[in-house]
Amino acid sequence: MTPNALVIADLDPNIREQADAILSELGLTTAEACRIFLNRIVEGGALPFELDRIPNQETIEAMEELESGGGIEFSSMEELFKDLGI
After folding, report:
1. pLDDT, tens digit (0-9, with 9 covering 90-100), for 37-80
2. Could you tell me if 48 and 21 are in contact, meaning their C-beta atoms sit under 8 angstroms apart?
3. I need a surface site. Which of 16, 48, 68, 81 has the fewest CB within 10 A?
4. How far apart are CA 10 and CA 21, in angstroms?
5. pTM surpassing 0.70?
6. Would you list the domain boundaries of the chain?
């Protein structure tokens, strides 16, 4: 048997609780649901659903700024992290 990898996710406790309740009704644990989700990504080479949400105002403004030539371009992740202070 292949060893398992531990995945740690930072989740809103309320969302986790609600998801656990729904998954339990389906006869699944959260770990099993995550395994299914990741397998579907690997099998399909993409997310197993469409991302069709309308962006919020902050995202729209950021996209408009980039499209108009604004924003900052970084040549490496290190530069980005330094700019973000992390």
Report:
1. 999 999 999 989 887 777 889 988 988 999 998 888 889 999 99
2. no
3. 68
4. 18
5. no
6. 1-52, 53-86
